[in-house]
Amino acid sequence: MPPLDWLMAPLSGATTHEIASWTAWHARLMVLGWGLLLPLGALVARFCKVMPSQGWPHRLDNPFWWRAHRVLQWSGVLAMTVGALLAWRGAQGAGGSGLARLHAVAGWALCLAGWAQVAGGFLRGSKGGPTDHRLRGDHYDMTPWRLAFERIHKTVGWLAVAVAVGVIALGLVVADAPRWMLLVLGFWWVALGVAFSALQRRGRCIDTYQAIWGPDPMHPGNRIPPVGWGVRRPFH
Question: Which tens digits make up the pLDDT trace of 72-91?
């Protein structure tokens, strides 16, 4: 079989590939949301709090990472929501194999995680700090509420991104997608993993607190350890 024909053939090796229109759009939107936008938003939040050209700590609280993270995550959750609605409407009353049912259950769990992340963002607490209208705040003081939010938000977010890789791959198998789709997504996920590893080694995962308010020990959050694995504080 010529290489192009092999790439265009379904994963099962069948000679034809036909799926319902709602299934195709469900897959596209879920790949857009969980395969592209949400992972990029997570990378931006982890590695772009302090940019190389920023001149930190002379210039603090760079808004780029927050704005990009919010746009990417909200857009990803919107794409996910529309894709989930298509699946809910199109699959009503349909049976399906065990793999299809597993994909559906895991997919709905991911949707719940995505919606919970957005809702949690609104519950992150007040900011506070010298640049806010009041000094006291959940984030500036690193209250128990804020500490719990950061631990849950980071853990659920990265866990969901990792689980999404398997759920998307399972969906491609269920839909008997062309082989090139799985290969392209595989290369994309490897590229994201390489980027994550490289940025982590370069020390780009800067503590949010110091990125916003700097390293001065007068700030209460600098007196406690940073939240999350591999988070770096340039000054202690």
Answer: 999 999 999 999 999 998 77
Tokens of 28: 């596209």
Q: What gap in Å lies between CA 42 and CA 192, rounded to an integer?
A: 11
Q: Is the pLDDT of residue 110 over 70?
A: yes
- Look at the block and give the residue holding tokens 């503590």: 207
pLDDT digits (tens, 9 = 90+) for 36-52: 999 999 999 999 999 98
Q: Taking the CB of residue 158, how many other CB atoms lie within 10 A of it?
A: 16
Torsion angle (degrees, nearest 10) of CA 156, 162, 167, 172: 150
- In degrees rounded to 5, what are phi and psi of residue 59? -115, 115
Three-state DSSP at 161 gives helix
Mark out the alpha helices in 123-232 (DSSP H runs): 138-141, 144-174, 179-201, 208-213
Nearest alpha-carbon partner for 115 in 145, 78, 90, 60: 78
93 pLDDT higher than 60: no
Q: What string of DSSP letters covers 177-204?
A: -BHHHHHHHHHHHHHHHHHHHHHHHTT-
Contacts of 191 (CB under 8 A, 6+ apart): none
State the CB neighbour count (10 A cutoff) for residue 83.
23
Tokens encoding 50: 């302090």
Quote the CA–CA distance of 91 and 174 in Å, as a whole number: 13
Q: Of 203, 209, 221, whose CA–CA distance to 61 is shortest?
A: 209
First to last CA, the chain: 61
